[in-house]
Write a structure and sequence with these properties.
6 domains; alpha+beta; 16 helices; Rossmann fold; 13-stranded mixed sheet; 32% strand; 732 residues
Length: 732
């Protein structure tokens, strides 16, 4: 049940006074707690999207901005939204113009005065990433015509001061006043809108994808990117509605599509400081990953609460290692992944938080099995950017280096990484390290993350620190987490409260998607959370033992995937044994495929041995656990299409016939489907299809070898006709 209130809340205050934070806090409270459809509209939304915005402020353009801004407010009111005007509105005439829009549309209106002292606004402004000129704030302060009640219509509903109250307290005060105001509306006609599940889902998809797009545009102010994202969002919404996707699935798809095109645009993260990215070091054991990590590392800890890994045995990395360094506009979290064949689970876990990969190949040893396996993991999990580091060139002849380079090029050929740079380096001497950094920086683009939506963080370590308690470390995939938030550990279904957050040696009050963070949690034990478990907003995700994934069988996998095989299944970074059945969906039935080979595609139904947390769109990787180190083990990868759906299996038999003579309008005789009248009579009413795709229905049995079929459209005499017979199979 949602409620519609065509009502206008007009904010007034200085630049940098906290109006935008107030607006968002009020909107969230109205939407999430009270179910009131709310829009926040600012003239900056339009000013920042227009192509001339990059040229700076141009007074002659402000008329266009004002027109768009006022039309957006009117449209929101016409559609029954509670609209918040997040603007300066420092002249009485500005507020009067908005008042007349509300009156014209029979909507109530009120004013909130954000009465932040000018000294505080100036201070907050300087703390911004891209501060406004102080002279602008001082000028607006001099011109400010505050709503003091000289006219009844200009009397503020609430006066607030963010320098004296928290935003949560302010939002609650404003919402309480608004709700009381709406109890006895003068013009607004609130009505309850009873929506079915389909319309609620459609509204949710529209709202969440739009919020996600606006979050991206707030960070990356590029008008051309905005146009591209708007087109992508419309296509994603259309597909999500057709597929029956949930809003969170639609947002995930939108972000994946957006990331695919983002590299084509200039995307400075305005006012946000360094852009956090994760870079993984992949490669066969003893090819020099850890030595390279030492060359690159500036900060040996990332979350500041990172557990020191059990990392070294004869110089071999046994777990993921984390460190950091700066690279141009990026703050790089470096993830050193183990290369030993028995530790592939750590590689997959690390790959799930990676934005870019460095595949390290020793020039003296060349490509090895785990080199190719690691490349397959990079490819199957869809890591966006790749650079190849040809390491240990100090130990190889020029001829050997060229030979290995040619084999690497063959590995890359026909993949999204065909044009990836190959850089010759020595992790021991430092040769080529600067060139590697340059190539990596060129390959990176600021990632578009899921900054909106419920909190989600895969856990890679859980341990206890004296005086701190249980600590979870990981990289946030979605949303944000704040001090005192309650989080849930899935699939353990344990809850705890966040007592502290740390990232790169600094205490934080809030951490967002893309940041690597250490989270100290009350009321949890380390045994409640293991690698692959998720820390999430309570109730936002469910667990399951049944999933379906689209699978691309890897071209290097030399065996067939057959029904009822036991495989290692990685859902995100969680590893679990599963029983898999390849097949296709036909007319709502899952038809089992008896064998799938390298480079083929199929659906795979997976029954897992234990509960996992899974969402549509999550990456899945299948590995054959029975193979040894010298044999390629990656079966293939894909993304989840369904979760929590236990299926029945069917076999399929196809009978073939031939179109005969016409018997009427689109009705023909068909020969060869059956050998007896008795057999034919059993299938009256069944559907058939011609080789050209025209469907028909069996109407009657004419003779032992002939039936009458009514087709949807005319067909040709002699054309092949197929009848598919399905038989339910027992699950082994």
């Amino acid at each position: 049940m949602s409620q519609s209130y065509p009502y206008l809340l007009i904010l007034c205050g200085l630049p940098a006074s906290g109006k935008t934070t107030v607006s968002k806090s009020v909107a969230s409270l109205l939407e999430d707690k009270h179910g009131i459809s709310t829009m926040v509209i600012s003239s900056d939304d339009f000013r920042g999207m227009l192509s001339f915005s990059s040229k700076g402020f141009q007074p002659e353009r402000e008329t266009s901005v004002k027109t768009l801004y006022e039309k957006a407010i009117a449209t929101g009111l016409e559609n029954g939204f509670l609209v918040i005007s997040d603007d300066l509105n420092y002249y009485k005439s500005m507020r009067s113009d908005l008042r007349h829009i509300a009156k014209r549309l029979d909507s109530d209106y009120d004013i909130v005065f954000v009465d932040t002292p000018v000294e505080q606004a100036l201070k907050w402004n300087q703390e911004r990433g891209s501060p406004l000129p102080s002279s602008l704030i001082e000028e607006v302060n001099q011109k400010l015509d505050p709503p003091k009640g000289d006219y009844k219509w200009d009397t503020p509903l609430v006066v607030v001061d963010p320098s004296k109250q928290s935003y949560e307290e302010i939002a609650q005060t404003i919402v309480t006043a608004v709700l009381k105001r709406l109890e006895n509306p003068k013009r607004s006609k609130p009505k309850k809108i009873v929506e079915n599940e389909k319309s609620l889902r459609a509204r949710g998809i529209e709202r969440e994808t739009r919020k996600s797009m606006m979050e991206v545009m707030t960070r990356y102010k590029n008008p051309d990117l905005g146009i591209s994202l708007s087109r992508i969002r419309k296509e994603v919404v259309k597909k999500a509605l057709a597929d029956g996707s949930k809003p969170v699935d639609a947002v995930d798809l939108f972000l994946r599509e957006a990331n695919a095109v983002a590299k084509s645009y200039s995307m400075a993260d305005e006012g946000k400081g360094l852009v956090p990215v994760h870079v993984g070091l992949f490669g066969h054991v003893d090819h020099g990953k850890t030595m390279l990590a030492r060359q690159l590392t500036e900060k040996p800890s990332t979350a500041a609460l990172d557990k020191a890994p059990d990392s070294v045995r004869r110089g071999m990395t046994l777990d993921m290692g984390f460190s950091a360094f700066t690279l141009g506009q990026y703050l790089v979290t470096l993830v050193d992944l183990p290369g030993h064949f028995s530790l592939v689970r750590h590689v997959v876990a690390g790959a799930n938080i990676i934005d870019a990969a460095v595949l390290i190949v020793a020039a003296d040893l060349g490509l090895q099995v785990q080199s190719v396996e690691h490349f397959s993991i990079i490819k199957n999990l869809g890591i966006k950017d790749l650079v190849v580091a040809l390491n240990k060139v100090d130990l190889a002849s020029p001829e050997r280096i060229e030979e290995v380079k040619k084999k690497v090029l063959l590995l890359l050929k026909g993949t999204p990484y065909e044009k990836a740079k190959i850089v010759e380096i020595s992790g021991l001497t430092g040769k080529g390290i600067d060139e590697l950094k340059s190539a990596l920086q060129d390959s990176l683009s600021p990632p578009i993350r899921q900054w909106t939506g419920p909190f989600k963080m895969p856990i890679d370590h859980a341990f206890t620190i004296a005086g701190v308690g249980t600590v979870l470390t990981g990289t946030i995939h979605r949303g944000k987490v704040k001090l005192k938030d309650t989080i849930e550990i899935k699939p353990a279904d344990k809850r705890g409260q966040v007592r502290s957050l740390r990232s790169f040696g600094e205490d934080k009050e809030e951490a967002i998607a893309g940041e690597r963070v250490g989270v100290a949690v009350k009321n949890l034990k380390p045994d409640d959370a293991h690698r692959g478990y998720l820390a999430v907003s309570p109730g936002s995700i469910t667990s399951t033992r049944y999933v379906i994934t689209e699978l691309d069988v890897d071209k290097y996998y030399r065996r067939s995937l057959t029904p009822y095989s036991d495989v290692d299944v990685f859902v995100g970074s969680f590893e679990v044994l599963g029983n898999v059945v390849p097949g296709v969906m036909e007319d709502g039935r899952f038809v089992v495929t008896h064998s799938v080979k390298a480079s083929e595609k199929c659906l795979v139904y997976i029954e897992l041995r234990q509960q996992v947390v899974a969402e549509r769109g999550d990456p899945v990787l299948l590995i054959n656990p029975g193979l040894q180190a010298r044999e390629f083990r990656i079966i293939g990868g894909g993304r989840l299409t369904e979760t929590n759906n236990k299926l029945e299996f069917f076999s399929k038999k196809t009978k073939e016939g031939t179109v005969g003579q016409t018997r009427g309008a689109n009705e023909y005789s068909v020969k060869g489907l059956f050998s007896t009248l008795e057999a034919a009579s059993k299938f009256v009413g069944n559907q058939v299809v011609t080789a050209s795709g025209v469907r028909g229905e069996i109407r009657a049995s004419l003779s032992p070898g002939e039936v009458s079929v009514k087709f949807k459209e005319p067909v040709s005499e002699g054309e092949k006709v197929f009848l598919c017979l399905y038989k339910k199979l027992k699950i082994k």
